Amino acid sequence: MEIVCVLRYTMNAVVASGLSSQSVKAEFDEHAKEEQEHMCLVAERINQLGGKQNFNPEGLARKAASQYTEGANLVEMIKENLIAERSACDHYQELIRFFADKDPATREMMEGILVNEIEQANDMYDLSVAHEGTPTLRK
Description:
The chain is mainly α. It has helices spanning 2-15, 21-48, 60-63, 74-99, 104-132.
């Protein structure tokens, strides 16, 4: 999921255009870097637990909890990222419940990532309000 988010945010940061796109591009770029940090944290934890990470691009989008979609314009990009962030939040909440008392260290790591994902979702919502007025997606 995090790899797909890195790719989507990076592409959005590159192709976003329009009068007010510079600040949004910067936000997309910042989120891409944060998602890469999440990816590395999760990969390192998998390694610590003796597991094998899967960075193989084949089937990546199919296995991810969020989709890789390219919005046709700035507002669509923001909306797609908001949907993806909400999906990520749901996914991390499920993981936190799964790990609960079974693996407190992993649970705490997931809780930290979830806090950042919630902030990113809020950022995308705020951008949606700023660029759309009344967003079609709830907060």
